[in-house]
Amino acid sequence: MTRVRAALLSPITGVAAFVVILCACVGAVLVFKAVDGRKAALRQNELELRNLAHSVAAHAFQSIRSADLTLDAVADQMRYAPAPAAERMLRFLRLRRQGLPQVRDFGVLDTTGHWLYATFPAPPSEDHSQQTYFSVPRDVEGTAVQISAPLVFRGDGPPTVIISRRLGGEDGRFAGVALASLDLSVLAGFYKTFEVGRIGRISLIRIDGRLIADSRDAAPGTEISSQIINQMASASSNSGYGEIVSPLDGLAKFIAWEQSQNYPLIATVSRPQSEVLAAWRKSLQSDAVVALGPVTAVIMVGIALALQFGHRMRTERRLSEGEAKYRLLTENAGDVVMQCEPDGTVSYVSPSIERILGWRVSDWIGQPHGTFVHADDHAIAAAAIARTAGVGALISATYRVLKSDLTHLHVEARFRCAGGAGQCGIIACLRDVSERQRMEDELRVLNRQLGSLATTDGLTGLPNRRALDAALREIADDAAFAVLMIDVDDFKPFNDHFGHIRGDDCLKHVAVMIEKLTREGNAFAARYGGEEFAVILPGSTPQRAEVAADALRLAVRGLAIAHPAAPLRVLTVSVGISFRPRGGPDPIDVLREADLALYEAKRLGRNRTVVFAMLDGDVAPLAPGADPCSTPDRAGSDGTAAGTSEPRMPPDCTPAKGI
Fold first, then answer.
1. Taking a C-beta distance cutoff of 8 angstroms, is the pair 609, 546 a contact?
2. In angstroms, rounded to a whole number, what is the distance separating the alpha carbons of residues 531 and 524?
């Protein structure tokens, strides 16, 4: 508790607290300003989007309303004059079209869906009776205007929507349909005049979810998510604001919408969150940069003060600790201090001898020092005393001293000559080093064990790659030897099928077989890495090496370890052999040649032995789907056995009996 209180009251703690509080205040101001700025940016964005959505909805209403008024005038004329003069009707329609840039064409269809009047050359035989802009007004009584889905009204024209309404005679009977085609490119062009950001969007949507016009040229008629449209249509008011993931571009956006009066249309304006908050983020970064300067200055000053106070406190602590240690050492010496005459007789010994060796002080006074030294170490102690008396330098020696219980203790004795010439008194300091001696003994044992572990593979117990490299380096230049490179065939499928635990057991079985077959003689077997092993056969010949390789390969196959992915349904190995005669290439090159022979054995179908010297130097890979057992034998590319003219199959392509 006292230490904690001292730490809390230290100057360093005060400096740290001041720096932390100041930085926290600056951070709090930045956070408050950031939160307030974000709210302001979102409020401003909502206001702008709502106003823009209202303007777009009003524009859509006016665009359709102006065309609707023309259709209403046509309906009035047709009601009281069922067959008005064509020239007068066409002049009226064309005049109205000139005054309405968003309207592409006006027209009137008779009760059968054929043209009566049109502001464009309309074929009289063209039948529109199956189109919704005709069938709906025909089948539904009333004067409500109908707005079609986007379509191409006149062959190669731009996408349009058809505004149509029912025509009735004085008796209320169906008399045809008056319609106007609204050019959607005019609406899209108008929307593009507004600035809503780089990827913002203004859209006009039918109440059924079909896109009418879009500022980013989305295809008219595109289906908008019904869930989003239902939310807009079911809102308590005809306008709203919120956050959505845009169904048109998949971006998270803020959106404002407003439903048009009298018409089934919804105007939407959306802006991505990244653009809405871009200015706020930039302002936040600027504020952070501005605040970083004074905060950094305060931190640097605080660090400087803390370092100064820390140095002062450490100095004071070292002085205090040094004084305490000196007092402790002088009062409770842990070593035995002894004074001897030049002949080795003890004339003084410190009281600590009772605690360390169990002897009383009187037991040593007047006795030769050698009396208490182990018989085997007499010469060491006597030589140290003699050298000290002769040269006057500090002499150290380690030997065993007898304890009162008749056991021995390892001590390190430091002898120094004190006094003038001819009157040399020897001062000795005996220190208990039995624990150090024990640890040194244990360390020597551990070093031997560590040396063994560093060159042993932990899984198989065989020497590892490090030991293999060392063995290759130790081979004399004029020594002949052979190297076998062994690889477990299709080991990855084995692991995939049985799991890594079974795979490890498999490697252990193979390692045991390799160790058993190479135990005789001075062969050296090692795990090369993964599922590969290497064997060095000193003084071997190519023939003996091949016999040993085939014996090993057949022995592994004889283990009958199940392997569903292997051709023989049991685990097999492939072996590559390389031989170096006396004065041959570098051992590392011989290992590399054996590795190449191993890969040729794998290429030829696995479960075989290949000698590097028998390769033709340019081995082509197996053709896709080729049977390894039909590949020419390693003795030559023509498939003949070494030293014969008779072709032969590789001996290992025939499964062993009982496997």
1. yes
2. 17
Q: How many CB atoms lie within 10 A of CB 196?
A: 20
Helix (H, G, I), strand (E, B) or coil at 475: coil
Of 466, 482, 579, 572, give the one whose Cα is nearest residue 535.
482
Give dist(CA 396, CA 392) in Å, integer: 12
Q: Which of 153-162, 259-268, 525-534, 560-569 has the lowest mean pLDDT?
A: 153-162
CA 426/CA 558 separation, integer angstroms = 78
Span 308-357, pLDDT tens digits: 878 888 888 888 877 666 445 534 566 888 888 878 888 888 888 888 88
Claim: this prediction has a pTM higher than 0.85: no
**CA dist., res. 395 & res. 417, Å (int):** 9
* CA 486, 492, 497, 500 torsion-angle sign: positive
Using alpha carbons only, give the angle 263, 266, 270 rounded to the nearest 5 degrees.
160
- What the block records as the tokens of 645 is 């003219």
Long-range contacts of 390-399 (CB under 8 A, 24+ apart): 391/417, 392/417, 392/424, 393/417, 398/433, 398/437, 399/373, 399/374
The CA distance from 211 to 187, in Å, is 12
> Backbone phi, then psi, for 164, in 5-degree steps?
-135, 155
Residues 6+ away with beta carbon under 8 Å from 159: 150, 151, 152, 184, 185, 220, 221
27 CB-near residues (< 8 Å, 6+ apart)? none
Residue 594 tokens, joined? 């054996």
* Digit-coded pLDDT (tens) for 286-304: 888 888 888 888 888 888 8
Burial classification of residue 634, based on how many CB atoms lie within 10 Å of its CB (0-12 exposed, 13-18 middle, 19 or more buried): buried
Residues 6+ apart with CB under 8 A from 375: none
CB atoms within 10 A of CB 638: 10
Q: What is the DSSP string of 7-18?
A: HHTSHHHHHHHH
Torsion 346-349-353-354 (CA) sign: positive
Q: Which two tokens stand for residue 33?
A: 């300003």
Query: Smallest Cα–Cα separation from 653: which of 543, 551, 598, 574?
Result: 574
In the structure encoding, which two tokens stand for residue 427, read together? Answer: 């001062």
Instruction: Determine the 3-state secondary structure of 568 from DSSP.
Output: coil
Residue 640 has what DSSP assignment? B
pLDDT tier, 538 (very low <50, low <70, confident <90, very high otherwise): very high
Is the distance from CB of 239 to CB of 53 less than 8 angstroms? yes
Q: In what order do the strands lie in the sheet with 609-611?
A: 524-529, 532-538, 481-488, 573-580, 609-611
User: Looking at this protein, which amino acid is placed at residue 139?
Assistant: D
Pairing between β-strand 174-183 and β-strand 252-259 as defined by DSSP bridges? unpaired
User: 56: how many CB neighbours lie within 10 A of its CB?
Assistant: 28
Side chain identity at residue 52, one-letter code: L
SS (H, E, C) 57-80: HHHHHHHHHHHHHHHHHHHHHHHH
CB-based contacts of 589, cutoff 8 Å, min separation 6: none
Structure tokens at 426: 């020897």
